[in-house]
Amino acid sequence: MPVAQSNGIEIDYEVQGEGEPLVLIMGFSAQRIVWPRELIDELVRHGFQVVTLDNRDVGKSSKLKHLGVPDVQKALMRSVLGRPLPGPYRIADMALDVVGLLDALGIQRAHVAGASMGGMIAQELAIAHADRLLTMTSIMSTPGGRRNTLGKPQAIRKLVDKPAKTRDEHLGKFVETFRVLGGPGFPFDEARMRTLAGEVWDRGMHPAGAARQFGAILDASSDRRARLRRVRVPTLVMHGTHDPLIPERAGKATAKLIPGARYVPIPGMGHNFPAAAMPFIAGAIQSHVLANRR
Q1: Distance CA 107, CA 283 (A)
Q2: So what's the pLDDT on residue 84?
Q3: DSSP class of residue 84?
Q4: What sign for the dihedral angle of Cα 236, 237, 241, 245?
Q5: What is the pLDDT of residue 87?
Q6: SS in 3 state form for the chain?
Q7: According to the model, what pLDDT value does residue 240 have?
Q8: Which parts of the chain sit beneath pLDDT 70?
């Protein structure tokens, strides 16, 4: 797949379909292939040119080894206590990676949708780079702040678990993580998750990069609540009603902070992307775009 020079690093990406550009930004430590095929196909069918990317420090994009490896457990504890440590980079830097990718692709303005940490990046784009966005969609994400960001301990423990040392161990951890993160409204597809886990492992795991991303999430600058009040980009916020990692109140808070934002709950969904929910999510994005077409 192609690689773009962006913000001083390399970003691996894929473009599918034709039409208005829609950039999908994945979450913490997740490669672009985690976006469900069903969602991309639905969006392409709706007339979008869908761009997916590996964020910095994961997949095939640049690994910023020179920035060191933060102590995730220490950073999390300090964040819980309201004393966050500065991360090796910020969510704002990751937003600039997306801007650089748009430049490399010759895209002046795009629709942007992000999930979890990707939603944080999308929000930052709407705050600092509104001139590059047509619309913004924030999915299963948070505007910042401890109350909005911290979910159930069991889900958080899965997020910061020790990395697997072998492929088989990774498959087991990946499946169990998504079993915990899923919601009761959709069946858990273990075979699908196991296959995806293998694809993720084969493209390349980078635990040190995931730790740096976690540092960016916990960085004090990642609290966007005050700045979101100034956003004027048409915004859709979606959140699973049974998200154990980032509670639904975080999605509701995001929508409340952004003037004119529309909030759409996804009944029964957790912090994952069940295939059966993809037509609903794609349709909501399509409706959002149509309602705000200029």
Answers
A1: 23
A2: 67
A3: P
A4: positive
A5: 79
A6: CCEEEECCEEEEEEEECCCEEEEEECCCCCCHHHCCHHHHHHHHHCCEEEEEECCCCCCCCCCCHHHCCCCHHHHHHHHHCCCCCCCCCCHHHHHHHHHHHHHHHCCCCEEEEEECHHHHHHHHHHHHCHHHEEEEEEECCCCCCHHHHCCCHHHHHHHCCCCCCCHHHHHHHHHHHHHHHCCCCCCCCHHHHHHHHHHHHHHCCCHHHHHHHHHHHHCHHHCCHHHHCCCCCCEEEEEECCCCCCCHHHHHHHHHHCCCCEEEEECCCCCCCCHHHHHHHHHHHHHHHHHCCC
A7: 98
A8: 75, 77-84, 148, 294
DSSP one-letter code for 272: S
At 139 the pLDDT is 98
178-228 pLDDT per residue, tens? 999 999 999 999 999 999 999 999 999 999 999 999 999 988 778 999 999
Q: What is the DSSP letter of 270?
A: -
Q: What is the torsion angle, in degrees rounded to the nearest 10, for the CA atoms of residue 185, residue 191, residue 195 and residue 197?
A: 60
